[in-house]
Amino acid sequence: MPLFLHAQKTARLRINPTNWYVGMKGPNVQLLIYGNNVGKNRIGLKKYEGVNITRVSTVENPNYVFIDLVISPDTKAGNLHFDINHDNKVTSFDYKLANRTARPRAVTPTDFIYLLMPDRFSNGDSTNDKFADMADPTHDRNNSWKRHGGDLLCVTAHKQETYSQIEL
Fold it and tell me: What pLDDT digit, counting tens, does each position of 17-43 carry?
């Protein structure tokens, strides 16, 4: 979620993660702030009970800053108030610390995306192996550097035999 700040001119900041939670198992969190030349500025945190900046790190690209925070276990939810100081002008933004209200749900099969590379799997239709407009119009299943010509037709044909071997 971008934040819009008003200083000499409007600047756009992106902060990741977009918010954080109190009561997490680990006390450390690192914020990534992205904005035009944000790394050339001084960044500070107004006093917030239970939250401290341990380090502000700049990188070669002046558009990025990393802020390492420590959040004590008894910290209350609320908004952290940061100031960015540049040329004696102060720009501010708030960062939300929310209550942790639920446990993460268990991992299920809907959480996975499968990468299927039919080219290396099996070739069910050799008529679609060559196209003149392809950068590499040849295929050779014996050469690991060349295309192998696999396709979804053969993946579909193997589907039934594969499912019978897997416990669902």
Answer: 999 999 898 999 999 999 888 999 899
The number of folded domains in the chain is: 2
Strands 89-99 and 20-22: parallel
Structure pTM? 0.56
CB 13 within 8 A of CB 3: yes
Q: In sequence order, what E strands does 25-134 have?
A: 28-34, 42-45, 51-58, 64-71, 78-86, 89-99
Do 88 and 122 lie in a common domain?
no
Considering the domain boundaries, does residue 67 fall inside one? yes
Q: How far is CA 71 from the centre of its chain?
A: 22
Residue at 132 is within a domain = yes
Within the chain, what is the greatest distance between any pair of CA atoms? 70
Q: Could you give the 3-state DSSP secondary structure of residue 158? A: helix
Task: Based on the fold, state whether residues 85 and 125 are members of the same structural domain.
Answer: no
Is there a single domain that holds both residue 10 and residue 86? Answer: yes
